[in-house]
Design goal:
Helix content of chain A: 25-40%
Shape of chain A: elongated
Largest sheet of chain A: 6 strands, mixed
Distance between the termini of chain A: 45 Å
Structural class of chain A: alpha+beta
Mean pLDDT of chain A: 97
Number of helices of chain A: 9
Radius of gyration of chain A: 22 Å
Oligomer: homodimer
Low-confidence stretches of chain A: none
Order of helices and strands of chain A: HEHEEEEHEHHHHEEEEEHHEEEEEEEE
Number of strands of chain A: 19
Strand content of chain A: 15-25%
Chain lengths: 383, 383
């Protein structure tokens, strides 16, 4: 076990701090942001100063080392180490109200400012080192999907197939944990949907729903048997190193309705069109409009991004968390930046058949999007 | 899929609301608390009035039905449906600062009061219906542990064994999701520790640590091969219905040092002593003291609840989340109440051998604690 708190090089930390560009003294405690700034999760705070400095107030674990590592027992201990400040930057989008008030009082500030959006914006453009992590994820993620037909046995339910994919993913090094931004988003390892369960609405803001196995976590596989003429949409966890790729492929059991095959082709077409169009500077709302337009021209708009319920986006940033910036949605105000990593997932729900469409993760380059989840895109037969 | 929002009987809801005893108008949005009050997770708010009433403001999913179900698009829509109020109760221990401020403004309140502790206190005493869910968990949990020796092959690593237990658990209906109270507590499906990895400190506030497979989630199995003379401590997810039991057993590969066997026996002895002692009204700090005292008398205090790092508790409430009230810790001010469900986990870390000790989940009854995770408690040979 490496005892150095900082698992990133000094240069890499500097690059990330420059992207954050803190303008007030800031205390970071969200696990995803701590991992971004240090390369590890610990219990405590990364303290950013407005001049680009960073120090670490650590509660646990007990043996971390480094020049700027200060052990504390409680937030109130921080005050002794930082200059008095009127304003403190905190992650007000994720930090609990009580914790925010306690930190504010601990440092004697009279005002708190939100740095959640600043952190999300910083993380939305990946460094070369981050992109390398995600490329490595993409290779493993694609390799696992290639083995899925070999995991299927006739008579299996959606959840039985999912369990075998979970096991294979874990044996290939998947960490399992699925970091999501937002307090009430929950999912276990991924989503496998067959037949009309793809049309069951869920409370969560994922692209697809599913009734789930229990009302305590109502999303995903519901125990439905995988039958002839139905699709199986597989959207499983791609976290192998703290970063994750997002990837969906569709499998089938026997012949499908032609409209399902057509919609799947339309999804592939949308991915290609968006990958070409999304050069730096492109407004992400126009990417959504393009996707919707292609679906509409194909006469498929009523199935686009759901049937009984329609998700309001066609893609999203991905990295340490599965739902990062930018979002490809009608009212989004962002533009594509070089270094964004984006999942594009034009999906369709065809009543009586199930979900079709693909999802790939792409790196935004000068010439457009470069796919890092390369595997066959057509509907793959399970039998 | 049942479209009724309320999946609990009216009587059961009344019992739970009585336990909560809201004294100001309150908006609940934490998934664990929504599940407690309704029997399902949805996106939106349960609105409690000070006279014991409950209504539901729902964003998603789209088809829920019931007398008191009101669909909203955003929190600001709530104001039209509730009387003006100066004070609003919110879950300030888990609700993000920004979300709390938005809700406060949405209902025009001038003051927010925290109901997190009230909700935790309510949930700490289970109803008969909740206890039945947990008894059902305990049967399944124990059944899975009985099959663990059959999953082991010589040469396996800790994580390889864990993956086979994950699969078996899931095939037995485990939902996988591990609900934890606290923003920065993370764990995937459970913890399997072999040898000295049990002594690696983690940033998380679990009883045991482990280095984990990656610094982005530094807890648990680390890829270490399971070797002769080492223990394997298994502490896996027991969530089969939104409630979970907590259960640990120890397995071994060949002969162990006698101090490890002695410490394991001491753990069993502590569990029995605490189960007898913990009649309603017993101070939970005295239960911790009793446990520590038994360990100390056996000359094992330096290994009690860890070796390089010592966890500061010997047990905790468990239910919808794995870390509920009461906590059995030196400074705890709670007393045992009939209907508490408590995990007791006196564990020892023996350098060179690994972790030993058991964990059971108990229901607090008039005469003491009744175990609901019944399975052999001795160290079980894997070979």
């Amino acid at each position: 076990m490496n005892k150095r708190l900082l698992l990133l090089s000094a240069d890499e930390v500097r690059r990330r701090l420059l992207r954050v560009g803190a303008v007030v003294p800031t205390l970071i405690s969200d696990n995803a942001n701590l991992f971004y700034l240090t390369g590890r999760v610990f219990s405590g705070y990364a303290c950013l100063s407005a001049n680009g400095g960073i120090r670490f107030f650590v509660k646990r674990p007990s043996m971390l080392e480094g020049d700027d590592v200060i052990y504390i027992r409680k937030p109130e201990d921080i005050a002794a180490y930082i200059p008095p400040t009127d304003v403190i930057g905190l992650e007000l989008g994720s930090l609990a109200y009580n914790d925010a008030m306690r930190l504010k009082a601990a440092v004697g500030a009279s005002e708190v400012v939100d740095v959640s959006v600043r952190m999300m914006a910083a993380r939305s453009v990946k460094t070369a080192e981050e992109i390398a992590c995600m490329e490595s994820d993409g290779l493993k993620h694609a390799e696992i999907y290639r083995h899925i037909p070999g995991l299927f046995n006739e008579g299996m339910t959606d959840v039985e197939l999912q369990i075998e994919i979970e096991r294979l993913s874990r044996l290939h090094g998947c960490l399992g944990l699925f970091r999501v931004n937002g307090p009430s988003m929950e999912l276990y390892m991924g989503n496998v949907l067959t037949g009309d369960n793809a049309d069951a609405p869920s409370p969560y803001d994922f692209a697809m729903g599913g009734a789930g196995m229990h009302p305590s976590i109502p999303v995903g596989a519901c125990g439905e048997q995988i039958r002839a003429g139905k699709t199986v949409m597989v959207d499983m966890n791609g976290n192998f190193n703290g970063y994750m790729t997002d990837m969906t492929r569709v499998y089938s059991c026997g012949k499908l309705e032609s409209i399902a095959v057509k919609a799947h082709q339309c999804s592939i077409e949308i991915c290609r069109a968006l990958a070409d169009m999304a050069v730096p500077g492109t407004e992400t709302r126009l990417l959504y409009e393009k996707a919707y337009g292609i679906a509409e021209n194909a006469g498929l708009s009523e199935y686009f991004m759901g049937h009984r319920y329609h998700a309001g986006f066609v893609g999203h940033g991905v990295g340490i968390q599965v739902n990062e910036l930018p979002v490809l949605a009608p009212r989004s105000r962002s533009v594509i930046e070089e270094g964004n990593v984006i999942a594009i997932e034009p999906k369709f729900v065809i009543p009586g058949t199930g979900a079709v469409g693909i999802e790939n993760t792409y790196v935004a380059c000068k010439s457009g999007l470069r796919c890092i989840t390369n595997a066959p895109e057509e509907i793959i037969s399970l039998i």
